[in-house]
Design brief:
Helix content is about 25%, strand content about 25%. With about 260 residues, it is of the alpha/beta class. Strand 5 (about 110-115), helix 4 and strand 6 (about 145-150) form a beta-alpha-beta unit. Helix 1 (about 10-30) packs parallel to helix 2. The longest helix is centred in the first third of the chain and has 19 residues, at about 10-30. The structure holds fe (ii) ion (FE2) (2 copies).
Length: about 260
């Protein structure tokens, strides 16, 4: 089973880039399951039912999110309704949406779990204890488990990789938008990458127009951010899972998708 994971899609340039790159990615990698992080898909921050639909139309089977998931109020009811858009599991239990989902891939149940790091981000519970609880609930319900760990610091992400090594098929880091060069299969059989990167403009600063991001850094005053548009790349990773649900390989995906 081949799982294609796509890092945070940023705004309409990211959505258009994904749509444009997917036919080539399908041809090259023949994924059975496509997971897309959509937390920045609506105007660079948050997600709406409309942008989720666009990601699904581009080929996503499951959409994960992160700290910006609740930016747009109108998405709350959709998050409760959707089985294919998830938010970090370690948010307060009563919050809109759910933290994991099980989808059928070639007749086999595969679970996708979304978690948020606790370092530098707001969570209700430790992601480590949370994922233990989620995996316990999933016992006997899924042949493979894939985790999107949306976290700020690499130490917490690497630690999560080791925590889950041999227990899940893959741990994909998201949130920092800059792809890391550490993709590998850990000794216990878990594919791991600290950051899958983002799907959006490389001409900006992690998705924002660079002159605006620079002005904010230079003046330390509030600046209205807009999504950067040029030099769009699709970033992520492709993982091959064996019959046991553990990984046989992971390969980084970094492809230009400009006009
Ligand atoms: Fe993001
Ligand atoms: Fe984020």
């Amino acid at each position: 089973m081949r799982v294609l994971f796509i890092g945070d899609v940023v705004g309409s340039p990211g959505r258009r880039g994904l749509e444009k790159a997917m036919p080539g990615l399908r041809e090259r990698h023949a994924p059975d399951l496509v997971i897309v992080n959509g937390e920045n898909s609506a105007g660079g921050l948050g997600i709406t039912e409309g942008t989720a639909d666009e990601l699904f139309a581009a080929g996503a089977n499951v959409i994960t999110t992160g700290n910006h998931v609740y930016k747009h109020r109108e998405v709350y009811e959709y998050l409760d309704r959707s089985d294919r858009v998830i938010r970090p599991a370690n948010y307060p239990h009563g919050n809109p949406g759910k933290g994991h989902t099980v989808v059928e891939v070639g007749g086999r149940p595969v679970a996708v779990v979304n978690l948020s790091g606790a370092v530098g981000l707001k969570v209700a519970r430790s992601p480590f204890a949370e994922v233990d609880a989620v995996l316990k609930r999933l016992e006997g319900e899924a042949d493979a488990v894939i985790v999107d760990f949306h976290a700020e610091v690499t130490s917490e992400k690497v630690a999560m990789g080791w925590h889950l090594d041999g227990r899940v098929g893959a741990v994909f880091g998201t949130h920092t938008h800059v792809p890391s060069a550490d993709a590998r299969v850990l000794p216990g059989g878990t594919a791991y990458i600290s950051d899958a990167g983002m799907t959006g403009s490389r001409a900006g600063v992690i998705g924002v127009k660079r002159e605006q991001a620079l002005e904010a850094f230079l003046t330390q005053m509030p600046v209205r951010f807009e999504t950067a548009e040029e030099d769009v790349w699709v970033m992520g990773a492709i993982v091959e899972l064996g019959p046991s649900g553990l990984a046989e390989s992971i390969e980084q995906v970094l492809v230009p998708a400009g006009d």
